[in-house]
Amino acid sequence: MNKRMVSILLSLAVLFSFAGCQSQKQANREKSITVGESVAFASYDPIGIMDGQGFIRYSPLVYETLIRYENGEAKPCLAESWQNDGTTWTFHLKKDVSFTDGSPFNAETVQLNIEKLQEFVGDYFGYYGAVSRITSVQVMDESTVRFVYDAPYYAVLQELSASSFGLLSPKMFENGNNPYGSTLEDTAGTGPFELKAKNTIAGQSYTFTKNATWHGAESGPDSFTVKIIPDADSRMMALQSGEIDLLFGSYQITYDMLSQLESNSRLETIFSDNLYITRNILLNASGAVLSDHNVRKAIQHGIDKEQIIATVLHGEELKADTLFTKETPNCDVELNSYDYNPKQAISLLETSGWTKTNAQGIRIKEGQTLHLQAIYQSEKPVDEQILMALKGQLAEIGIDLSIQGYETMTWFEKGTLGEFDLSVNDTYGFPQDPHVFLTAMMDDGLDKTSQQGLSQKTEIDSHIANMMQTVDAAVIQEDYRYVLTTLHKEAVNVPVSYAKEMAIYNPEVISGITFDDRPFTLDVTRIVLNRGISWSKV
């Protein structure tokens, strides 16, 4: 498992959708929904493995973290309160909490989890200083634990809220067992749901049931089944036919699907008020063609974002001119946008010697056609649609773009090896944005590969490293200013839109959904069931 992949899995972390077959039944039967999901589960742990993103979208319902975020502020989860004293963070834990296997939750289990994270997957969390930079974990008493760091670190709470730092039962580590990327037995967390092996059909369906000992308030369904439907059209058909009750997530719901469903009066569509991620196209500045700054700038000016938003995204998202919104912490940096200007794009290409064209209108330089290769993760149909729109727009300025989708592991490997010119490489969403997205640029992955072609790469990494080694707000802001300004001027990233979250559901079964503050997350406990009917699985 590669370092950058863990961050991608985080950044992707926790997209929920539910597929199931429902029918009206007599009262007092189990209330259950079932969901459409594009990716099967390869491991039932908070981190997963490269080809196992499916469970990661649901892991916060099983494995809780010390901290959560709400309205941009750190809130208690398994930790009720905390204090920071420079290089130490002291957490006061909830009492009378247990894991679903009966093991008690206490300071010793927190200590064990952190130490095992460092032991088993520490190499992949170098840019998550909240864990990697802990020098010792001290058990103060049964419900108090202290993390000691090598230096003050400002992003501790943000990072500890990441789903990968969900806490596991100590029994999962018995006999030297490494559960990360290899757990296919019963889960053992403290969250509102659990997943038992007997309730799974590998690659087909996974039924989560209520944790009878959960410390939170009862809400949502008694159980939910995640049904794996890899094909987007098949997911839509399943929703229309009533086979499933809900689809969640902009990664697997295209706006074309929404348009087709508008005439279906038995389904409801809902959008979030919040903006979650930035849809981002990464240009490989280390590539043979895109190492030319003029060509990268030509692509920036040759993309009509407004048209993409109006057509592919049906006008539901906001145009993005910068990698992060100005409301994102430390990202209120003044940058000049690359406005859509095909004449300027053509002028930039001709300045770099792409002056001739073939019969198809594609530019030629020294006998070579201006051909670029774009890659994306095949389970994300919206990404393919955005790239198809880009293909048409770039053809108008003389650039030929071919598009290829890959499953996530292959996409990442090809990206790390530099076998791409353009790639969809969206940001992670707050609270992981912006610092985790930037710190991951120093480790193996698409961003690092692309940036190797920049003369400023060493200085970029220096500023990123520096921002993670200080709590001086002015220094941190200056580091962000340099990194964001440099990447923008070098035209490495093409931000397309700031994405909302979305869901489609059957109102006969579900009467309402509240969006979670976390990106890629549907909190099933926030689903309000339609109490006018009773149902059970068939």
From TrEMBL:
GO molecular function: peptide transmembrane transporter activity
Gene3D superfamilies: Dipeptide-binding Protein, Domain 3, Periplasmic binding protein-like II
A Pfam family of this chain: SBP_bac_5
SUPFAM superfamilies with a match to the protein in the record: Periplasmic binding protein-like II (SSF53850)
InterPro entries linked: Peptide/Ni-bd (IPR030678), SBP_5 (IPR039424), SBP_5_dom (IPR000914)
GO terms under biological process: peptide transport
Name of the protein in question: Extracellular solute-binding protein family 5
